[in-house]
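Hey all, sorry for the wall of text incoming. These are the two entities for the joint prediction.
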Amino acid sequence: MTRLEHRLRVLQQYVRDEAPALRAAAQELDGHPDGSTLYPQVPLLDRLATLQIPRRYAQDPLVIEGHEYFLTSAVERVVFHEEASAHGDAALLLSAPGSLTAGMLVAALGDDAQQRMFFDRVRARPTWTFLAMTEPQGGSDAANLRTTLTPCDDGFRLNGTKRFIGNAHRAPLGVVTARTGPGPLGIRCAIVDTSHPTCSAGPLATLGMRGALGTLDFRDVPVPEAHLLGRHLSPTRRGMWGWLHAFNPLRCVAAAMGVGIARAAHSYARQHLPQRHDALRRRLDTLGARIRGVQSLTRHAATAVDADPANAHLPAAAKTAAAGLAVEATSTALRLLGPAARLEHPLLDKWARDAFGIECMEGTSHVQAMTVFSALARTDTALR
Amino acid sequence: MLPLPAEPHPRLPLRDTARCEGPRSALLAFHRQAGPHTLVCGPAGHVLAPQELVADATQVTMAGRTSARVPARERDLTSALLARLGLAAFHFPHPQHADRCADDAVLWLRLGLTQHLMGAVLAHLGERTVGDTALLRQPTTKSALAEVAVALLEAESGLRDAAADGPDDTTLRLLHRQLTTSDEALLKLLGANGLTAAGPGATAYVSQVLADLYAPPLPSPEAA
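and here's what came out:
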């Protein structure tokens, strides 16, 4: 899997050609005192906005050299996001309109009417969406979820606060996780329209991934029963078990972005290091070998998730490795280019800050370690 | 923080300012110890300081040599993030780079900032639970925090035992790297809270910029 098949190499080359336009736009956004209010028009992002929609609801796949891409498989998403991060910018990808995160939940848990309602709206014009799970007091720990969906005459009322939500401040539509009752079966996902006056959203000033994150506050926001995802599924399938599975491909995408950031930093350092400095160049060679290893792991993870969406440990391992790699690659590049590389090479400084953002996406390394250990415990008799 | 049973050290007030009050106060103390209206340059002529000090300073000092500032020749390197934190950075075109970076004050300052960050992490984790278990009771959390505590004790021991004229450049680079690694480990424990511009992540960021500007550079190809 390390070597991509021809069809995926065509996709890779397309992204590689289009992605450099992201870079200048990303620097402008990062350097703006309040980058969260900006969103640059870049053709690749406009195109991405109407991809990642299940084939059944999509009308306009990306077509290159006769190949069709819907960007709904983990492998296609990984190729796209790694290349766009390596030659463009990962933070800008996270700020892009489209249905990367929320769409996965809707595709995994939504019935036909729900998917049609959601994806028709995303497909009609570039539309930002959000997946709101993390809360101020409990992070992404599902057991501590406090946002509630309370039954009422015309459906439910949504109350709670979400933090660190991608595109919360831009999106008119998204998916919110909330409690309808105690325990893991009492956690549900709902499609929420943020146009209601008691729903407020704002940008969140961050060090890395600037402009991508925001907060959401819900006060008695009406949610029709028809917007609760998974109503056609059994209680176990629509609850925590169901939506946790949707995170496996997302972890592959986060890993791909980490590999992309590492490649960008590696390439940048190679370009700017003096040719004659063999000792430093050897350090870059070692880093390059590690990048290829994590890239391979990420592609294996994506292939495994496409074959079995319940596969959790490979995406967790890839995401952990890639988050560490992104930090290592950017800090190594800064050290080799120093002194003052953070200020003299603002793009590299930005990537170093963005690299920590990969650590925070879809569960930190400590959370991923638990998933990897669970898989280890299942396979090793000594641990059972 | 775990204290070392050691004699008082002249850099302790700087470390303690950083630990108790954070980056801005620590940078004020760092530059003020060089004298009035004076900013301390890194080995390649870079300065990071609170904005009001940069506006007020008339001279810079590097490796014991003091020069009058020449604003027309200085290059402003203040990023949007640094400005947001009330800091400014610039490059002073020093006629000659320092032979070595004998001043270990930046490391004491960074040690205090890492301790400041650890205090923030302990406070944050103290309020959090996973399921019914306090995060601070999780073995993985205990282990990660203990490893950082060990690294900080090692760094402080190294600083205290340095020669009278300060650690050599190799030791300085190693200590800077140890503190950066400790900051990264602490940030991981904060999760997304380490990413906010107004949160503890900003302490780690300022510390990393300090290492970038004030650590001795890697040997040139000729020296290597």
